Amino acid sequence: MGRSKKLLVCTAAIALMFISACATGGTGTTTGFEEWELVEPERIPPEVAYQHVRSGDALLVCAYDDEETCGRLRLPDSMTLYQFERNLMYIPVDKEIIFYCA
């Protein structure tokens, strides 16, 4: 596969990380995630991903949870999955997230 990395755009990343089987605690309130629909990630060419990241429209995240593997495959301007998870609450919900793996 060479330098060409598989890039995944996952606009539903936040939903995937938060959907759970939590009860509402009897309050009658909802978590807000009940209406979210899981979608297949969209694949985009590396050039398009690069443009989105460089323009500030997207975040680039190494999809490996193993820090050693991610360290070997880390691309410029990317963050590790751990960094992404730690900062998730600060990422705007409309921010494009691009996950990549080799």
From TrEMBL:
<feature type="signal peptide">
    <location>
        <begin position="1"/>
        <end position="23"/>
    </location>
</feature>
<keyword id="KW-0732">Signal</keyword>
<protein>
    <recommendedName>
        <fullName>ArsR family transcriptional regulator</fullName>
    </recommendedName>
</protein>
